UniProtKB/TrEMBL annotation:
It is an enzyme of class 2 (transferase). Coiled coil: none annotated. Residues 238-444 form the Histidine kinase domain. PANTHER family: HISTIDINE KINASE (PTHR43065:SF51), SENSOR HISTIDINE KINASE (PTHR43065). It catalyses: ATP + protein L-histidine = ADP + protein N-phospho-L-histidine. The keyword Secreted does not apply. This is histidine kinase. It comes from Rhodanobacter lycopersici. The chain crosses the membrane at residues 20-41. Its EC number is 2.7.13.3. Gene3D superfamilies: Histidine kinase-like ATPase, C-terminal domain. Keywords: Kinase, Membrane, Transferase, Transmembrane, Transmembrane helix.
């Protein structure tokens, strides 16, 4: 594309070409003058040869002068181009010389190349830092399946020094089977630096017109073990807290009753003390049993058994089970969903129970549903104090209610997610209170193991 500078010079002869033309004409001037003089004036033989010698000398001097004017700027131009070829973009030429137009273009090219190299170096530095920070092992092979690039995670996986790995083939590294088969898969593999279950992904690459292979290895086993360890730690903390809350008063009361039984004679009110102590022990044992039963119910939720359920009929059924408050039902459009009716009923019962307990003694609770695109949305609205400011509302065993088990909302979320849905609990925007919102898909149904199968 023509530049502004080239457009300005398009209508006239470039300066360098003009100077070459004028210099060439000037070189020919002595010979022309001598020829004219010899043709028009009578010269004797000695004077004629003297003029010819002077003309030859003048012509040679002017030719040398013209040679220097033409060749030296070309040397400068050649030096600038050589610097560009060697990757030195810092040199610039003086634009006012005889090759000013060409120097202008070369200076612009050098500036552009310098900017592009800076961007390339910054991108390469960022890529190197990113690869070094990845926990995933990254390998790059050339068209001959020889290793050309790897990150620190890949080096640790192969348990070898970098300079010993470069240039080795995938077969020599034991990675050839990973470059075959599906582009993404899970498998158990033994590497020199680690063994376990890995997520393997590979793809074709092209660099410099040549093919190559990218291999990424993720240690999913380690991630799962860390998550499992964290889950066990959370579970043990909760179980230890609940068990200690029940065993501490039982142990204390057992010691008190043992001390009382050792007294001789027994006090007159020993029967009342024994009865009260045994009642306390029984009450705490019952509370511990309820907690363990709730945990067992959460941990053993069976896979959903879906069938068509009409939301209006289900709403009429669950609202009759709550006797402490009258539940208002806002009937929406007829909606039929593919769900496990027993599990969805249990989820709605838990949501209604929470809403009623928040609205007692004389509050209002409303159950409604609607279609939202490809989802059915069920909402339980109350005018209680609103949800507590916590991000742990759906965490198992977390509760803000005295005597609560912390199982209800966790069970609701587990049921919703088993049906490829979800649940939220937020504050109302129009008034005081909370909105529990549970949504389920309308266009897909849940298989026996929780997998998705198309309606079609």
């Amino acid at each position: 594309m023509p530049t502004e500078h080239s457009a300005q010079r398009a209508g006239r002869m470039p300066r360098f070409e003009r100077r070459v033309l004028l210099g060439g004409l000037l070189v020919a001037v002595p010979a022309l003058l001598v020829a004219l003089a010899l043709a028009w004036m009578p010269w004797d033989e000695s004077l004629r040869w003297t003029c010819i010698a002077i003309a030859i000398a003048a012509t040679l001097l002017l030719a040398r002068w013209q040679y220097r004017r033409v060749v030296f700027p070309l040397y400068t131009l050649s030096g600038l181009l050589e610097a560009l070829r060697q990757g030195d973009y810092s040199l610039r030429g003086v634009q006012g010389g005889v090759l000013g137009d060409a120097i202008y273009d070369i200076n612009a090219l050098a500036e552009r190349l310098q900017h592009e190299r800076l961007e390339f170096e910054e991108s390469s530095y960022l890529l190197g830092k990113t690869l070094a920070a990845l926990d995933s092992a990254v390998f790059v092979f050339d068209e001959g399946h020889r290793l050309r690039l790897l990150n620190p995670a890949a080096q640790r996986l192969l348990d070898a020094e970098r300079h010993r790995l470069f240039g080795l083939s995938a077969a020599e590294l034991g990675l050839a089977p990973l470059l075959e088969g599906p582009a993404a898969r899970l498998l158990t593999h033994v590497f020199p630096g680690r063994s376990g279950r890995f997520d393997i992904r590979h793809a074709a690459l092209r660099s410099g017109g040549r093919g190559g292979q990218l291999l990424v290895v993720n240690d999913v086993g380690r991630v799962l073990r860390e998550e499992e360890r964290a889950a066990w730690q959370r579970l043990l903390r909760v179980l230890g807290h609940e068990v200690n809350n029940s065993l501490a008063p039982i142990q204390s009361m057992a010691g008190t009753l043992a001390t009382l039984a050792a007294r001789d004679p027994l006090p007159e009110d020993w029967r009342e003390d024994f009865r009260g102590g045994l009642e306390l022990i029984g009450h705490r044992a019952e509370a511990l049993g309820r907690f363990l039963s709730s945990y067992s119910r959460l941990a053993r939720l069976p896979p959903p058994q879906p069938r068509a359920v009409e939301l209006s009929a289900l709403a009429a059924k669950v609202t009759k089970l709550e006797q402490r408050l009258t539940i208002a039902v806002e009937a929406g459009e007829p909606l039929s969903v593919q769900v496990d009716p027993d599990q969805l009923e249990q989820a709605l019962i838990n949501l209604l129970r929470n809403a009623v307990e928040a609205s007692l003694p004389d509050g209002n609770v409303c159950l409604r549903w609607r279609r939202d695109g490809e989802r059915a949305v069920i909402e339980v609205v109350d005018d209680g104090p609103g949800p507590p400011p916590s991000e742990n509302l759906f965490v198992p065993f977390f509760t803000t209610k005295p005597g609560g088990s912390g199982i209800g909302l966790a069970l609701v979320r587990q049921i919703a997610e088993a049906h490829e849905g979800g649940v939220t609990l937020t504050a109302r925007e129009d008034a005081r209170g909370a909105v529990a919102r549970l949504w389920l898909p309308l266009t897909q149904e849940i298989g026996w193991q929780g997998g998705l199968t198309s309606d079609a």
